[in-house]
Amino acid sequence: MTDKLPHNLLALFAPRPPLPYAKPLDRDPVKRKGPTVTGVGQYVPLLKDYDPEYVPTETVEEKKKRKLAEKKKKAEEAIKKGLEEWDPNKDENVTGDPFKTLFVARMSFDITEKDLRREFEMYGPIENIRIVKRKDDGKPRGYAFVEFEREKDMKAAYKDADGVKLLGRRILVDVERGRTVKGWRPRRLGGGLGGTRIGGPEQNQKYSGREGSYAIHTSHPPPVSSHDRDHRSHSRGGTSGGYGYSSSSNGSRYGSRHGGYGSSYDRDRDYRRRSGRSRSRSPGRYRDDRYGSKGRDRRR
Q: Where along the chain is composition biased (Low complexity) (predicted)?
């Protein structure tokens, strides 16, 4: 049909000229020759003469284990050295009768000796108060020792003052164990009590007070003076030791509940919290006169 078209239209259907020849930029793949690849047989003899100075690279896991072992060894050496130097009976700062001394911990750093005297002299006359401070800068370390003139006053404070809030923090009270418990060691030397730093959040103690923390860290029973050992009451089929700890039927001086707490301690503690302190002076009036608007807070 195109032969019937005029010449001006046939020019539109004319084929294009062939592409000009261009020299290839690379060699023909068929004619290419690459590098000669040889085996590893020539390097086998080198394996017999292994480099003795070669130090293998330490992995991340091995590095962590090595550092952990070094820290553990260093801590054990420090504890061993500290135990050789630690003797509470020869401490110049420790004075007074240990069975009349109350240990007060978890205090606010702003608490003064006047605040502690105002809080604890309601249990009885106080002989001495010592707030432990750092040697380098003189700042308080958060715990103190309160020595009473009478042992029964210390027992009353031991039972009733645990968990009292002072200046926004709930304190913990305990007997002095450094001079009364044989083989006792402080926390910095691998001993101590308390359950706030055992492990993870599911293991640590999340409530204030000493109750329930003794059986976790130590097998030492609370100390009992010679006066309490000689004066035991035979009631309810058992004997009663000092500081509110009752004896079991197997001859032990201390009860098994909470690492040494007897049932008499819990009954007396609950009774005191329900009905208040049973003393000759009025607790409410005495508290209002001495504390003003601050008072002793057990509710929060």
A: 245-254
